[in-house]
Design brief:
9 helices; 262 residues; single chain
Length: 262
């Protein structure tokens, strides 16, 4: 059973997080560490960001962690990620599928290879992560997948493969929520809106810094979100306070999707 404090919050336990070298994944690892949750920092070997900086920040927050290189396109590597987590800490309580890529590709340039690679990371990578962690999880455990406002709510020109993958994540989580409920494992998704991360700050494949600044003006809060604001929601969804919540999608967007257009 997942560990919890007397007041119902997280305490100890082990979280496996893919894509934890930067952005939402890093913020999540550090937030978990502050609560005493040990973190397994899954990182893609080609990621330019330093996963050991995530580990340093988690340890500075009083936590304990482990860095494991993993390409979520490879089932054997994802299986090894889960085995490494269990070997190091003896349990897995929370599995967060956060690894993802973002590539701009108009329909005319969207090759089968580009389509397949995107879905292998952003959709099938979620399946692989949950499938590999599930055997080590039990009553009170929780899984969360990171979808996107693109695909999860809106369409996005030149990003059909990304939006399709992120939309598919929601159906996957709904179905796994039903399948795993008898084991006491909850499965939910978060749908981040415009969040200031290295991925969204990429001016080639996403909005870039200037685009994010402009987009912030259309958000009721008047700004884009920060990684820790999404990470906090993920931690809530894995906590006992969300113990009767499963198969749901929680939008974290500062009100963007509910704002009436003039």
């Amino acid at each position: 059973m997942a560990a919890q404090t007397q007041g119902g919050g997280l305490a100890s336990g082990v979280a496996v997080i893919t894509g934890a070298a930067s952005g939402i994944g890093r913020a999540l690892a550090v937030g978990y560490a502050r609560q005493g949750v040990r973190v397994v920092i899954g990182t893609f070997p080609g990621d330019p960001h330093d996963p050991y900086e995530t580990l340093r920040q988690a340890e500075a927050a009083g936590g304990e962690g482990l860095v494991v290189e993993v390409d979520v396109r490879d089932s054997a590597q994802v299986d090894e990620l889960a085995r490494s987590a269990h070997a190091a800490f003896g349990r897995i309580d929370y599995a967060v599928a956060n690894a993802g890529v973002l590539r701009r590709a108009p329909l005319a340039d969207l090759t089968d290879e580009a389509w397949d690679d995107m879905l292998s990371v952003d959709l099938t990578g979620v399946l692989r992560t949950f499938r590999s962690c599930a055997p080590y999880m039990g009553e009170g455990s929780a899984m969360v997948a990171v979808s996107s406002i693109a695909g999860g709510v809106y369409g996005w020109e030149d990003h059909a493969h990304y939006a399709a993958a992120k939309a598919g994540v929601l159906g996957l989580c709904r179905s796994l929520a039903v399948e795993l409920a008898p084991r006491g494992i909850r499965v939910n998704a978060v749908i981040p809106g415009l969040i200031e991360t290295p991925q969204s700050s990429d001016p080639v494949n996403s909005l870039g810094p200037e685009g994010l600044l402009r987009a912030g003006g259309d958000i009721p809060f008047g700004r884009v979100g920060q990684p820790d604001e999404v990470a906090d929601v993920i931690r809530f969804l894995t906590s006992p306070q969300a113990g009767y919540v499963t198969g749901q999608q929680l939008v974290v967007d500062g009100g963007l999707t509910v704002k009436m257009r003039a």
